What does this fold into?
Amino acid sequence: MQSYKKLEYTGNNDVILRYTPGHFITPNSHVNYYIDMTDTKARMKEARAAGESLADLFLSSEIIDTILCLNGTEIIGSYMANKLTEAGILSMNSHKTMYITGPEYNVNGQMMFRDNNQHMIKGKKVLILIDSASTGSTLKSALESVRFFQGEIVGIAAVFSIATKIDGIPIQTLFSVRDLPDYASYPHDNCPLCQAGIPVDAICNGFGYSTL
It folds into this structure.
C-alpha cells in the first residue's frame, strides 16, 4: 500500500487520522479509503490525545457507568474515562468508577457478555466507543447487544465516522466527512470500483488490513 496521508484534529494536533485512498473491502462494505487507527489505539501519546478529545464531547453528560470499547479501543477508552471522571462525570457503580470493557463475539458474529462481565452492562448507563464507522453495522450490533443485556445507551463516540447518528442516537466524532468529503462506502454487491475493474488493495477489519 502507498504511504499514508495525515490529518490533525483541530482541537488537539496530537490526534492524527492516517488514511490512504484505494479500493478496500471491509466486513460490511467496500470503501475508497483505508483509515489506519493502529497508532491511535496503541501509541500512548495518540491514544491519550484521542481519549481526552472525545471526553471533551461528553462533558455535559450526567452519568456514565461503562465505556464499551469496540475494535480494540480500550486504551482510548481508559484515557477517556479518566478525563471524564476528573471533570466530575458521575458513575453509579458501587466503587464510583467507570468500567472499560469490550465485547466477545459468538459463533454467529453477535456481541455477547459472559456471566462474569454482564454486571458491567446490566442496569448500567453505557457509552459506546468505536474507532471508525462507515455503514454503522458494528454500532447497530452493539446497540442490540447492550439492550439485550439490559443496559442503557447514553452516547456513541467515534474517532472517525461518516454516519451522524445510529437508531436516533447522535455519534460524537473527531473526524467526519467534513475532513474526507469524497469518502465513500459501497455495498459488496454494488461497488462501482469493482464494476470499473479497479483491483482490491486490501481486506480490512478492526484489527488492520491484509494486502492481496
